[in-house]
Write a structure and sequence with these properties.
There is one protein chain. By secondary structure, the protein is of the alpha+beta class. Helix content is 34%, strand content 34%. The protein has five helices and seven strands. The chain has a seven-stranded mixed β-sheet with strand order 1-2-3-4-5-7-6, sandwiched between helices. A hairpin with a 2-residue loop joins strand 6 and strand 7.
Length: 175
């Protein structure tokens, strides 16, 4: 098992691999949480590829990929918080995913470290992320990385045809 991954900024050529990882990880993570017919609606690699190409091209969010050998095995998107009324020094993890075959192998923590470094360079002092309440794997990951749930922030998010209950997690960056 490889536990040392290289992390680098994503390029436009990485958009398809990022979209494939995003789709595979989301389908695996939401199986049993989201009805199967709605899972199918989430499985368009092409739509995700267009989204990630644009994100990479305009650096919104900043996107970095984790490499194992010569294969992309995960990615993170991070930038300033999108939440209304958040401070200029608040960053946000917009997305963090690893290919399911690399779950529990250190990809996520490697990507989190890269995002934390990038956010600190941008002058951020704390960071948030939104996680579906029923995605226990993602909640555990973020809590192990020092994030705390802000239960008063629970809301229903519309993801295409799907409604998902989410909660914001936050932590300081200098600790």
């Amino acid at each position: 098992m490889s536990t040392h991954y290289q992390v680098r900024p994503a390029t436009l050529r990485d958009a398809k691999a990022i979209a494939q990882i995003h789709t595979a990880a989301a389908l695996e993570a939401y199986r049993g949480i989201v009805p199967d017919d709605q899972l199918k609606a989430m499985s368009s690699v092409e739509k995700r590829q267009a989204y990630w190409r644009e994100a990479i091209e305009f650096c919104e969010p900043q996107v970095q990929v984790a490499i194992d050998g010569d294969k992309i095995v995960g990615f993170v998107g991070f930038d300033r918080s999108r939440d209304p009324k958040s401070r200029q020094t608040t960053g946000e993890i917009w997305a963090i995913y690893a290919t399911p075959t690399h779950w529990n192998k250190g990809v996520g923590i490697t990507l989190w470290d890269a995002a934390r470094e990038g956010l600190l360079e941008e002058g951020c002092t704390n960071v948030t992320c939104w996680v579906p309440l029923r995605n226990e794997r993602a909640l555990r990951f973020h809590e192990m990385a020092g994030f705390k749930r802000e239960m008063t922030t629970a809301k229903t998010a519309q993801v295409g045809p799907i409604k998902i209950e989410e909660v914001r997690l936050q932590r300081t960056l200098n600790g």
